[in-house]
């Protein structure tokens, strides 16, 4: 079954176009490195929680929007190889394609798919 990397971040709302360009450039690299699909979502109904929530997890500020993204890989092994290759690609370097958000508040992780309907 496929393997998924998931990401949640807070992006300055004014940087929406810059984020989209950043994400499109990164998606091309991930696809070249073996990803099956890259999805980027701009939050428009992401409520604050009482105990926990996406906004709380990324310490979203009033002038920021939560983004939710994922990359689908054929397997964990191909993800490990592809991600290593992608991270070494100069098109993903901070100098070439800087993150238009605070990367310290990025939440990410790898997940084994157990149900796909």
Task: Write a short abstract of this structure.
This protein is of the alpha+beta class.
- Just give the CATH class: Alpha Beta
Low-confidence stretches: none
Mean pLDDT over the full residue set:
96
The SSE string, one letter per element, is: EHEHEHE
Description:
The mean pLDDT is 96. This protein has a 4-stranded antiparallel sheet with strand order 2-3-1-4. With 117 residues, it is an alpha+beta fold. The protein has 3 helices and 4 strands. Helix content is 29%, strand content 27%. The chain has one domain: Alpha-Beta Plaits. The chain has helices spanning 16-32, 54-57, 76-88, and strands at 3-12, 37-42, 64-73, 107-112. The two termini are 12 Å apart.
Can you lay out the helices and strands and say which pair or pack?
Elements: E1 3-12, H1 16-32, E2 37-42, H2 54-57, E3 64-73, H3 76-88, E4 107-112
Describe this protein with a few key phrases.
alpha+beta, globular, Alpha-Beta Plaits, single chain
């Amino acid at each position: 079954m496929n393997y998924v990397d998931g990401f949640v971040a807070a992006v300055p709302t004014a940087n929406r176009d810059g984020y989209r360009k950043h994400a499109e450039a990164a998606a091309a690299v991930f696809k070249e490195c073996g990803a099956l699909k890259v999805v980027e979502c701009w939050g428009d109904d992401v409520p604050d929680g009482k105990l926990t929530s996406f906004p709380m997890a990324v310490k979203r500020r009033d002038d920021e929007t939560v983004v939710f993204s994922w990359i689908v890989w054929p397997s964990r092994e191909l993800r490990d190889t592809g991600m290593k290759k992608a991270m070494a690609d100069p098109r993903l370097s901070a100098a070439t394609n800087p993150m238009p958000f605070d990367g310290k508040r990025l939440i990410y992780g790898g997940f084994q798919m157990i149900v796909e309907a």
